[in-house]
Amino acid sequence: MKDRELVHLFRKKDDQLAFQELMNRHQAKIYSYIYSMIQNRETANDIFQETFTKVITKMDDTYNEQGKWIAWVMRIAHNATIDHIRKQKRFVDVSSSYDEESKTDFYERLPDEGTPGQHDQLELDESTSRLLKHIGNLPEEQRTVVMLRHYYEMPFKEIAELTDVSINTALGRMRYALINLRKMFDEEHEKESNKV
Length: 196
Known about the structure:
Blueprint: H1 3-13, H2 16-38, H3 41-62, H4 69-88, H5 118-136, H6 140-151, H7 156-163, H8 167-195
């Protein structure tokens, strides 16, 4: 069954199994997004629970079945996450809890070109760690677009809807994010060159 059919069953017939199926399909994606922004498992769990409480209570009032259900849920998760970050009045360093347990990143989504050697894997891990550190230093709006576009492979139209901006604004944030990331890598490379 498609998402919209499951949503219809839940809304019209209070079919709990339909809602459970929706959760099973999408909970990993939603939780991963929250965690990637927060970098704290306990807080991410709290925000995830808050998100689904809002989903259940607001589905009859605010969800329009013409739109994608997952995009609507992601918007709720995004807003709850941003509210938390603003309350904390700090930006999250996404590399702070980069450990063996949380190595779900851009590089692991790339096609496997064969088993890399141990040296190659160490270089890949180091590059990943640097990339995540630099993404964590981006302004909140740019970091969000980078994570949604490259980590979750969301189209810019959905990113714009989720973050409540125009497509041009979402594209602009991505462009500035890439410029800033390039600057960060250049500065890092320059510092390393000066050490030698």
